[in-house]
Amino acid sequence: MRMAELSAESGVPVATIKYYLREGLVPAGELTSPNQAQYQARHLQRLKLVRALLDIGGLSIVDAREVVRAIDEKAATHELLGAAQHGLFVRGEEVDDEGRAWAMGHIEKIAEQRQWMVQADDLYVKSLVSLLCTLRDLGQERLIDIFPQYAESADAIAQVDLEAIGDLPTPEVMVESAVIGTVLGDAVFIVLRRLAQQHASRKMFGTGDEEPSA
Amino acid sequence: MRMAELSAESGVPVATIKYYLREGLVPAGELTSPNQAQYQARHLQRLKLVRALLDIGGLSIVDAREVVRAIDEKAATHELLGAAQHGLFVRGEEVDDEGRAWAMGHIEKIAEQRQWMVQADDLYVKSLVSLLCTLRDLGQERLIDIFPQYAESADAIAQVDLEAIGDLPTPEVMVESAVIGTVLGDAVFIVLRRLAQQHASRKMFGTGDEEPSA
To answer: Range of B147's domain?
Structure first.
């Protein structure tokens, strides 16, 4: 199909598709004349993925390109799972040595309980250090006490996630499914957490016979 | 303290603090002369909260103002829990009637299992509809099969979340803790999910004796 059809089919404006092409998010079409390219179903599929990563996953162009690259290079599954949202929660703010040591103490305790291997220079571990220090800074250290239970749920979900992709037919499909499941799965989980909180909150604080809040 | 001290203490530039004041994210200081205001510890605390909501929670100014307003008005706890990230995953994209009916079928099944009350016009339910339709559009319907297990974990986490705030001394502290726990808790959970995936992935696909990936 031509660019105009690709745009009509995907609902993405032509100018935006051109931008994605320039940024390397969508592969180039096959040139059929000097200024005419043809696009296939795989371009349409990729375009949908890019939209989902940017709009729903909230990824930056740079992070989305990293994810797309990982898919194209058929990165090892356990590397690939890390490609999405790398660095998302590590902000420029400095964490001092005391804060880092304090946070690492909490993280290592959780890792030991769950038998996770963690290293202080891992980007996710750095993110956690930064988050824990922020919570302490906000006077919410006590929330940290519930994170071992978060980790237990995270383990349960990761198990299900891996089982869901483990039996897919080809590495390409597996990798794409892993990325989508990771990025969109975050969004799904966050929304489910809100619904579960509404439910728990109604049970705990509500009168029990009120209308569900809109 | 004066504006300059508030800036030094919080690490937030004066121009940014002024912007937050104009946007109603931080309450005005007490005027001690026509162009001199004094700020208290509560301003510093609010400033830290706003930074966390914007930088780590990734909230827009409008959403952050909504959260701050909910705290100030001491919204009912189970309303308040909904204030953060409202509308985050509902994008402008239209979902057609067939898609909505299909997605609601899945959502109602999950809600029934978990005894949640859900209504089609709830913002979170709309978000889920939009997410499920996106997954189907990307050819990943099969991922939807694992969401009942996500919902089970979401219930476990919501229970812990509510217990953690249920015994706090005052409504103000409870509300603030609920907001921070919800917004920053999302980030913490997402990072823990990645660590758990790395662990599960190494067990399933790795050789078992490799170095943990950085």
So the answer is: 87-158
Query: Under an 8 A CB cutoff, do A158 and B200 touch?
Result: yes
Q: Is A181 on the interface with B (CB under 8 A)?
A: yes
Q: B129 CA to chain A: closest CA distance, Å?
A: 10
The verdict on residue A124 lying in a domain is: yes
pLDDT tens readout for residues B143-152: 899 999 999 9
Kindly state the tokens that stand for B151: 């919902």
Collapse the DSSP code of B48 into the 3-class scheme (helix H, G, I; strand E, B; otherwise coil) and give the result: helix
Residues of B in contact with A56 (CB under 8 A): 89, 91, 130-131, 134
A vs B: CB pairs below 8 A: 293
**In this structure, is residue A126 part of a structural domain?**
yes
Q: What is the DSSP letter of A212?
A: P
Q: How many CB atoms are closer than 10 A to CB A147?
A: 23
In-domain check, residue A133:
yes
Report yes or no on B123 lying in a domain. yes
The 10s digit of each residue's pLDDT in B89-104 is 444 456 889 999 999 9
Contact A143 B164 (CB under 8 A): yes
| CA dihedral for A86, B9, A140, B184, sign (positive or negative) | negative
What is the ipTM score, two decimals?
0.74
Please tell me the distance from the alpha carbon of residue B212 to that of residue B214, in angstroms, as a whole number. 6
Per this entry, what is the length of chain B? Answer: 214
- Name the residue among A78, A191, A13, A184 with its Cα closest to residue B139: A184
Which residues 20-39 on chain A approach chain B with CB closer than 8 angstroms? none
Q: Locate tokens 């906000």: which residue?
A: A138
Q: What pTM was computed for the model?
A: 0.73
Is the pLDDT score of B13 beyond 60?
Answer: yes
Provide the number of structural domains found in chain A: 1
